[in-house]
Design a protein that fits this description.
The complex is a heterodimer of chains A (about 290) and B (about 250). By secondary structure, chain A is mostly helical. Chain A folds into 2 domains: about 55 residues; about 220 residues, MetI-like fold (Orthogonal Bundle). Helix content of chain A is about 80%, strand content about 0%. Chain A contains 13 helices and 2 strands. Chain A is globular and about 75 Å long. Chain B has a domain of about 170 residues: Rossmann fold (3-Layer(aba) Sandwich), CATH 3.40.50.300. In chain B, α6 packs parallel to α7. The longest helix of chain B has 14 residues. The mean pLDDT of chain B is about 95. The chains are: A mainly alpha (about 290), B alpha/beta (about 250). Chains A and B meet through α8 and α9 of A and α2, α3 and α6 of B. Bound molecules: adenosine-5'-triphosphate and magnesium ion (MG). Magnesium ion binds next to α1 of chain B. Adenosine-5'-triphosphate binds next to β2 and α1 of chain B.
Chain lengths: ~290, ~250
């Protein structure tokens, strides 16, 4: 009896400590980012930092404008969403509502595999196959462009969007769909007018998740985006927030290094906002039921 | 006048036979009640009448069903047109997660494009037809899920009426409702039969006796007995029917 309560207590404490640990780590990282990111922003000035168009950290008169990086991250993400969401949603609908079980299982396996591929492999394949292709098709001097990054990112966000949307679609009560059929709706009408709207908060969650993935992706884009600190153009080489940090951290020193932390802070705020949106969506979806 | 006739209708779920040689005529503008113990095939039979079983993989149907004299399973028959003609109300109220108005407008919008005032008219008529208009006329834009269970079920009836069917199939429409809501729906059915043919599945013998004109008793996939409700209940021809309605089994 007594040993039992001791084990019980020890386990409870262990769970509690582990739970606390995640909070402490997250909080610690947040505090660290703020402390090491703020000073450089102070010195440069927030608007010069966020809206400056020139990034030249090693010049005689260094300039630290990160607008090119911010816009690149935003455009790359929007582009990836524009391509990835329709394809992902259509695939999810196919898997949840149309495909015979065997076909669905096969497609599922492929999707899971896609999710498991390390991002450096996406980047590598993109660099070897996609970049030359883009160069030839669009007749460019260099195929490592924002466009290539968008293509790679849109494939990378597919599995997340597919999985989350499919789950949401599969959870739509069968009764809704039956009611629709009983009124003389076709399958397509039922899916578009009943199933998808009923699953919309889940689908939105999948999209936001995709946005988070695209904003945070580093390795794959480094290999296909060209890594030049230009204001972004669709067929020009670009550098995103994540690329700026990863690319320069290895050699940056002094103030330059501090600015990289400031970029990290900006990224951190981005992700924070995205996650807040996600929570909001999920909560609203949950409240309705 | 019989609006629906079935001839030697059998239905299989895979290799399991759920209906066996059913011959049943359903007269126009009357209420036909389907009774029988759980699992005897009442819902299955009901769903063959508007081809809802088409949606279940592995279902095989033999025999014939005619509606207005036309074979509804004949090659080239359009199940969409059939379902518009033969509406359905389910056991659990299942309004769409949309506004009350949109729930009713959903069906008509599938089949025709109406002007705004025409649509508003149609919505009002359908809601009046289901005796719900007075309770919801001030909150048409509110979510249908905010209604009570009984109101939701009447909304589902209104939704079925919105596409002007001839026949209404109801699968235990009051089994999820409280007695007061059940009363309302029974009253409503009495009025509906002036314009519609109603086929209702019910487990409630009093309900069947109260509202229906004809009763069909099913048992393990067979149609055991059918006739005028007062006759079936007062002097059943089959011993099994008598046992069932007197509550000796089922
Ligand atoms: N989709 C299905 N696949 C396989 N068998 C089914 C399916 N639906 C029903 N059945 C079987 O067919 C038989 C008749 O079922 P049905 O739902 O028609 O019964 P019911 O008379 O409506 O019963 P209840 O009163 O409980 O609603 C049952 O034995 C049931 O297990
Ligand atoms: Mg049933």
């Amino acid at each position: 009896m007594k040993t039992k309560t001791i084990i019980e207590q020890t386990m409870k404490t262990t769970f509690f400590l582990c739970g606390m640990l995640t909070i402490v780590i997250t909080f610690g990282i947040a505090v660290y980012m703020v402390i090491s990111g703020i000073p450089a922003i102070r010195e440069i000035g927030l608007s010069d930092f966020l809206f400056g168009q020139v990034w030249n950290p090693t010049g005689a008169e260094p300039q630290f404008g990160i607008l090119p990086f911010i816009l690149t991250s935003v455009y790359a993400t929007l582009g990836a969403i524009a391509i990835g969401v329709p394809i992902g949603l259509a695939t999810a609908i196919f898997l949840a509502k149309v495909a015979p079980p065997k076909v669905a299982a096969a497609v599922n396996t492929a999707v899971e595999l896609l999710a498991g591929i390390p991002s450096v492999v996406y980047g590598f394949v993109g660099m070897i196959v996609l970049v030359p292709l883009v160069m030839n098709v669009f007749n460019l001097r260099n195929g490592a462009t924002l466009f290539s990054a968008i293509l790679v990112l849109s494939i990378m966000i597919l599995p997340g969007i597919i999985n989350v949307s499919r789950t949401a679609l599969a959870a739509v009560p069968r009764e809704y769909e039956e009611a629709s059929y009983a009124l003389g709706a076709t399958k397509v009408e039922t899916i578009c007018k009943v199933s998808v709207p009923a699953a919309k908060s889940g689908i939105a969650a999948g999209i936001v998740l995709g946005i988070g993935r695209a904003v945070g992706e580093t390795m794959a884009v480094i290999l296909v985006a060209g890594n030049v600190a230009n204001m972004p153009e669709l067929f020009g080489s670009v550098r995103s927030l994540t690329m700026a940090i990863a690319g320069e951290m290895s050699y940056a020193t002094g103030f330059h290094r501090n600015v990289l932390f400031s970029i990290g802070l900006v990224l951190f705020v981005f992700i924070l906002l995205i996650n807040l949106t996600l929570n909001l969506i999920l909560k609203r979806g949950g409240a309705k039921r | 006048m019989n609006i629906i006739r079935t001839k030697d209708l059998s239905l299989f779920y895979g290799s399991f036979q759920a209906l066996r040689d059913i011959n049943l005529n359903i007269p126009e503008r009357e209420i036909t009640a389907l009774i029988g113990p759980s699992g005897c095939g009442k819902s299955t039979f009901l769903r063959t009448l508007n081809r809802m079983n088409d949606l279940i993989p592995g279902v095989k149907i033999t025999g014939q069903i005619t509606c207005h004299g036309e074979d509804i399973y004949a090659h080239g028959t359009d199940p969409i047109a059939l379902r518009k003609q033969v509406g359905m109300v389910f056991q659990k109220p299942n309004p769409f997660p949309m506004s009350i108005f949109d729930n009713i407008a959903y069906g008509p919008k599938l089949h025709e494009s109406l002007s705004k005032p025409d649509m508003a008219d149609l919505v009002e008529r359908s809601l009046r037809g289901a005796a719900l208009w007075d309770e919801v006329k001030d909150r048409l834009k509110k979510s249908a899920l905010s209604l009570s269970g009984g109101q939701q079920q009447r909304l589902c009836i209104a939704r079925a009426l919105s596409v002007s069917p001839d026949v209404l199939l109801m699968d235990e429409p009051t089994s999820a409702l409280d007695p007061a809501s059940t009363m309302k729906i029974e009253e409503l059915m009495g009025r509906l039969k002036q314009n519609y043919t109603v086929v209702i599945v019910t487990h409630n013998m009093q309900q069947a006796a109260r509202i229906s004109d004809r009763t069909a008793f099913f048992l393990t996939g067979d149609l055991v007995e059918t006739g005028r409700t007062d006759e079936v209940f007062s002097m059943p021809r089959d011993k099994r029917t008598e046992d069932y309605i007197t509550g000796r089994f089922g």
